[in-house]
Amino acid sequence: LASSRAPSPVAGRPDRPLAGAPPPRFRMRPSTKPVGALSDGAVSVNILYAFDGVNHSVDFEYDVSEAPETVAVEFARECGYPAEEVAADVAEFLERVRRDVASRVDDGAAGAGADDPEAAEALREYERLTRRTQHIHEDRLGKLKSSRDACAAAQREALSKIDRDAKDLERRERDLENARAAHAADAERLARKFEKDMLDFEHKERIELANHRRRLDDFAARYRAAGAARRADRDRR
């Protein structure tokens, strides 16, 4: 459906629902354009249908080697319709297109064979090569899609790893910042404690020195008093 156009409303009155039953959201309408000539395995088709009571028309190139069911699901998805309500009718229409193309090819081969067997053989060989080319194309396309999906998955995994590593690095940076802040706070606390300890030591040292001087003065006074008493005692004797 790469060459399909988005559905466009066609002039006409909306379909009316059947009495007593809910109308189907999707309904095929008879096509007024004949199926185009087969070219490189594809034919141009026109789909006329009504969705939610509004008539639409879509032209696109249909590769007859593709399964009608697959194309019908793609048609529903690209048009934005529920596949369960659309795919069956579209697949039936495309199956009729395939039968029509096959009958035309068979009639052409039969007509050519009646007049020229070599032309009939060449036509059959052309159809065989066309189908083989289509199969090779689909196989290569499938491999390319698989390779693309694998590359996309690898890229997603690489990006996910980068994201995880970045988050881990951010966590480590936060831990380092917290450790640095804790170390600075601890150093400041130790500095304040050391300053307080020094002030306490100086204060205690002053008190102890004062007490020591007082004890020395008291001892000196007692010593002098004792000496005076001894001298007085000698003088009395």
What does this structure look like?
The protein has 237 residues and is α+β, with helices and mostly antiparallel strands. It has a domain at 1-115. The chain has three helices and four strands, in the order E-E-E-E-H-H-H. The protein has a four-stranded antiparallel sheet with strand order 1-4-3-2, covered by helices on one side. A hairpin with a 2-residue loop joins strand 3 and strand 4. Helix 1 (68-79) crosses helix 2 and helix 2 (83-115) runs antiparallel to helix 3. The radius of gyration is 51 Å and the shape is rod-shaped. The chain starts with 7 loop residues before the first strand and ends with a helix. Residues 1-6, 8-15 and 110-114 have low confidence and may be disordered. Keywords: Coiled coil. Residues 152-204 form a coiled coil. Residues 1-34 are annotated as: Disordered.
Provide a compact summary of the structure:
The chain is α+β, with helices and mostly antiparallel strands and 237 residues long. Helices cover 70% and strands 11% of the residues.
Write the layout of secondary structure elements.
Layout: E1 8-9, E2 26-29, E3 42-51, E4 54-63, H1 68-79, H2 83-115, H3 117-236
Antiparallel strand pairs: 1-4, 2-3, 3-4
In round numbers, the mean pLDDT is 82
Rough outline: rod-shaped
Secondary-structure element sequence?
A: EEEEHHH
Helix content: 55-70%
- The rounded Rg comes to 51 Å
Strand content: 5-15%
Uncertain residue segments: 1-6, 8-15, 110-114
Largest sheet, described in full? 4 strands, antiparallel
Measured distance between first and last alpha carbons: 146 Å
- Spatial order of the strands forming the largest sheet: 1-4-3-2
The count of strands amounts to 4
Estimated structural class: alpha+beta
Number of DSSP helices? 3
